[in-house]
Amino acid sequence: MTTPFSSRLPAALGRWWRPAIVVLGIVVLLRVLDGPGESFWTQVVTRAMILVLFAVSADLVWGYTGVFTLGHAIPFGVGGYTAGLLADRFGWSEVLLLSLAAAVAAAAIGAITGLLLFLGRQPLTAIAVSLTTLALSFVAERIAFGWSFLGAANGLPGLPIPTLFGWRIEPGVPFFIAALVSLFVAYVASSHLVESRVGLVMRAVRDDEVRAAYLGYAVGHIRFAVFVASNALAGLAGALFALHEGFVGPTQIGVVLSTQVLLWLVLGGRGVLLGAVIGVAIVEVAGRGIADEYPRQWPVILGVVLLVFVTALPGGIVDGWRRLRDRGRTGRSSSGGVEVASASTGSGAS
Amino acid sequence: MTTLVGTDLGVQYGSFRALDGVSLELRPGHITGLIGPNGSGKSTLLHTLAGFLKPTTGRVELGGTDVTSWQPYRRARSGLSIKFQVARIYTQMTVAENVHLALQTGRPVRRLLRSADDVVDRDRTQALLAPFQLDDHLDVIAGELGHGHQQRLELAMVAAHGPSVLLLDEPTAGMSPDERRGVGQWVTSFADRCAVLIVDHDLDFVRSISTTITVLNQGQHVATGTPAEIEAHPDVRRVYLSHV
Fold first, then answer.
1. Does residue A59 lie within any of the structural domains?
2. Cβ contact B149–A217 (<8 Å)
């Protein structure tokens, strides 16, 4: 039976009030940290929000659909370079147009790559997909390093400040708002997607592609569609990142960033959008202080943390927290004599 | 109604012939039992018919169309469904979600983009699960079910898919005698609507529900006939006696 929209609305509002309070808290905190006329922490958080957008796009393709891509920086870089070139060489400044062009370019690259990866006569194995995307990421980085049209090793520095309907989107509060709105829209859309029946199919493809195929799902087509959509989102993130930093360079398309985004998901948790937020928040915001203080030791610390997570908490922080919460609930219900646990496990006894 | 026909099917791994020129026809309303000693090629034949394995020789037709080169999802969309030897269910999803996946196949994407209950009716899911005594387990995570329940859930999924050809690879493996009887009754009633191929090590079970039995040995066809004919067949007796 379909739920009327009027009764769904309060439920939707109820769902978003917590994130809204968190965002409000961050805004207040940033005002306190930055002080009048400063925007250092606002820019750090803006950068992090753009990277969350990037991580969400990676989660859609890896966390939800099971495509372990090692080249997710390619659409990010393609988006960045597209926006950078259009702004720098062709004088485009409208952020909506630049973002749209970046998303389209990244989606187009994703479609070409996806054709090769998922729609061939003999679909590639999971390991072959990973190795191919890794190789492509390496190639993309080398092209960016060597091609003077893209600024070669120097990239494209000094990108002009973008505008929105004529208003300048300066780094600081204006860009913070632009990034926040972009992230909110992308997050809500992604959230709706993964919680819909399409999301159920994506998880089915991830968990057992053979069973999914024998239920009539065209696994290759589904992976292709998610891959292209995810590339478009990564391209949007890449454009915003380039415009915020005023720079796009080879590191934004290469192997290191491709693995970094996976690291955020490993830490935060994959297959759950909140994991992308937490992973980026830990590494790029909380970890920033440590990285600045101990620049040489930071990669080693990060490596050890990653190792601990992969071996002890493969589902990431969100999964760990859920397990703790569930254990607490089970403990409470069993001590209180409620038969929740026996109802579920007992079913398997016969 | 759809018929599945395998003609002169052969599967070769290097110098080893796992299947050697076997032909088989599955007709609507019939339950075909496929038996043979270990390594006789039963699973290879079933997987070849399903499209899981590509035959080295021969062809597979579904409803008169050559589907030999079709990928599994196309065969599934044309009415073929399979229950695997080890239950392939989604252990991290609920029982209801597993069935929904089978029910919603072929729905347009814009409908699937709607949330949860707008797409598949909960009552219908419950009705589908009832013959498998899983209708009061809708919100249980499938991985928490016992082995027999998981096997039955997979049967519910293939039933929900609404197949015209059903391939069952040891559907009663690990089940209690009561559960086996229940599955047997379900398969018999379901066969009214489709063609069924069943592979099982329990010869009594196969004999009790099959209308036709095909026997394989060392990748080759030995005999096809009614259960009574197969029981009396000298070649079949020789095959089974040589493995005692």
1. yes
2. no
CB contacts under 8 A, B 29-58 vs A, are 50, 52
d(CA A157, CA B80): 58
Q: Give the burial class of B162: count Cβ atoms within 10 A of its Cβ; 0-12 exposed, 13-18 middle, 19 or more buried.
A: middle
Q: Does B73 touch chain A (CB under 8 A)?
A: yes
Contact B146 A348 (CB under 8 A): yes
CA of B152 vs chain A CAs: smallest distance (Å) = 11
Nearest residue in chain B measured CA to CA from A2: B118
Q: Looking at the 3D structure of chain A, how many domains does it have?
A: 1
Is residue A302 a part of any domain in this protein? no
Closest partner residue to B161 among A193, A210, A215, by Cβ? A215
Tokens coding B148 = 């027999």
Flag if B97 and A200 touch (Cβ within 8 Å): yes
Per-residue pLDDT of chain A (350 residues; tens, 9 = 90+): 444 545 555 565 666 777 778 788 888 788 777 777 788 889 999 999 999 999 999 999 999 999 999 999 999 999 999 999 999 999 999 999 999 999 999 999 999 999 999 998 777 899 999 999 999 999 999 999 999 999 999 999 999 999 999 999 999 999 999 999 999 999 999 999 998 899 999 999 999 999 999 999 999 999 999 999 999 999 999 999 999 999 999 999 999 999 999 999 999 999 999 999 999 998 888 887 788 888 888 888 888 888 998 898 988 999 999 888 888 777 666 554 333 333 333 333 32
| Residue A261 placed within a domain | no
The reported pTM is 0.89
User: Is position A314 within any domain?
Assistant: no
Q: State the CATH class of domain B4-79+163-242.
A: alpha beta
What are the structural domain ranges in chain B? 4-79+163-242, 93-160
| Structure tokens, B213 | 């039995």
Judged by phi (left if over 0) then psi (alpha if -120 to 50, else beta), residue B162 lies in: left
Which residues constitute the domain of residue A220? 19-254
* CB of B134 closer than 8 Å to CB of B115: no
